[in-house]
Amino acid sequence: xxxxxxxxxxxxxxxxxxxxxxxxxxxxxxxxxxxxxxxxxxxxxxxxxxxxxxxxxxxxxxxxxxxxxxxxxxxxxxxxxxxxxxxxxxxxxxxxxxxxxxxxxxxxxxxxxxxxxxxxxxxxxxxxxxxxxxxxxxxxxxxxxxxxxxxxxxxxxxxxxxxxxxxxxxxx
Length: 172
Description:
It comes from Streptomyces boetiae. The protein is mainly alpha-helical. It is 53% helix and 2% strand. The chain has one domain (26-167): dinb family like domain (Four Helix Bundle (Hemerythrin (Met), subunit A), Up-down Bundle), CATH 1.20.120.450. Helix 1 packs parallel to helix 5 and helix 3 packs parallel to helix 4.
């Protein structure tokens, strides 16, 4: 697995949209970096009482992007918006190799980038189709991106712990 170069956005960056998008890219790269070097067995192994594995967390993040940007922001119907959730926890479909989970995650991130390219932060998700059924529910793209950013930051921290328990590796 090859991860993109990971660098925090410049401290002089002041454009809110670029700041959100660049931090989102930073955390996407961070998540992939934390998985690098783990073999298939370790990617599927949970070392935490909650029972999730690093691979399940990545599968979850692919679906988070899909739920918020495809189903939510675009308003496209999804036959299985919660396909990362099974019996009360994150789950990767049985038999799906880690390489396929990673590829699907990367594909979804690519689609997400296309969805938000050149769209103003004030743009709103459509109503009465997709995820949101009322004007009051329909968030702006800025809100959705900020939500994704905090989700990534939280899960990158979770992966810090899982990785340290797996092989002692620590990082920022």
